[in-house]
């Protein structure tokens, strides 16, 4: 996938300094701020070999794949990208045959999948609902594969949430409408965070492997859609407009309350 220099500059804000320098050098060399360049053209990034893999002939990445591919390496390096988007969750599981209950070790997550369920229209309810499910796994007491009820808990919340869905078994786009609140709050243990919706990537097309992307940016007093070189004010109708086309939505933390009662207000990202 081609990256626009201006889009790479936005992503650059969350990269290590050596990667920022690489993006800036490449963008400057291109000469025109809107000129396209490939990931493999980036000069001296700390993970250039990984970005070059993204530039192999015949291989294309969409917006979600690009972010996930870039950040998967960053997670192992404990970089600023990992710290910005990752959280911590833990599950306990109960065998539905023998009722043995067991705690599963806490794990760091980067992608938090939220199903598009017609019965759940509230974003916060969707997040908590996605932490509970019934899965098939091996039970040591029963000595066979059995169904387990799995219940999850959020231990640490990320600074920024992103929301998307791809059906791995089908290439058809899921056209279910998604109601996105401008603000919502989540708790993890005794910690509490409030989030603001700051931007969305919209997808126009019938299939997930083709189509056109635009960006929607939320400011204090306006909502703007950026479509290549055209900027349109969609403040008066963004809810219905975004609901049927949103592919990735970014929420950034604005307030945090910890278990000691301390409240911190964050400067909104974006």
TrEMBL record:
Cellular compartments per GO CC: cytosol; nucleus
UniProt cross-references to PROSITE patterns, sorted A to Z: USP_3
Record keyword Lipid metabolism present: no
Region (Disordered): 1-55
Domain of life of the source: Eukaryota
UniProt GO molecular function: cysteine-type deubiquitinase activity
Compositional bias of kind Basic and acidic residues: 7-37, 46-55
Record keywords, A-Z: Hydrolase
Biological processes annotated in GO: protein deubiquitination
Official protein name in the record: Ubiquitin carboxyl-terminal hydrolase 8 isoform X2
């Amino acid at each position: 996938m081609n990256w626009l220099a201006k889009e790479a500059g936005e992503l650059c804000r969350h990269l290590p300094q050596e990667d920022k320098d690489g993006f800036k050098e490449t963008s400057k060399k291109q000469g025109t701020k809107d000129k396209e360049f490939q990931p493999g053209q980036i000069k001296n990034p700390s993970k250039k070999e990984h970005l070059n893999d993204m530039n192999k002939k015949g291989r294309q990445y969409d917006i979600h794949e690009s972010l996930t591919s870039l950040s998967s390496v960053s997670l192992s390096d404990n970089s600023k990208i990992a710290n910005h988007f990752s959280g911590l969750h833990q599950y306990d599981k109960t065998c539905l045959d023998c009722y043995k209950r067991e705690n599963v070790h806490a794990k760091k997550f980067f992608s938090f999948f939220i199903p598009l369920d017609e019965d759940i229209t509230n974003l916060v309810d969707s997040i908590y609902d996605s932490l509970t499910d019934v899965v098939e796994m091996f039970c040591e007491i029963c000595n066979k594969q059995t169904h387990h009820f799995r219940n999850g808990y959020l231990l640490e919340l990320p600074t920024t949430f992103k929301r998307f869905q791809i059906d791995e078994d089908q290439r058809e786009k899921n056209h279910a409408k998604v109601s996105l609140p401008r603000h919502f709050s989540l708790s993890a243990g005794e910690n509490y965070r409030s989030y603001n919706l700051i931007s969305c990537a919209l997808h126009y097309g019938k299939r997930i492997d083709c189509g056109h992307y635009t960006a929607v940016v939320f400011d204090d007093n306006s909502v703007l859609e950026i479509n290549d070189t055209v900027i349109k004010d969609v403040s008066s109708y963004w809810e219905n407009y975004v609901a049927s086309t949103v592919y990735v939505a970014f929420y950034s933390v604005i307030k945090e309350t910890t278990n000691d009662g301390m409240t911190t207000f964050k400067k909104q990202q974006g």
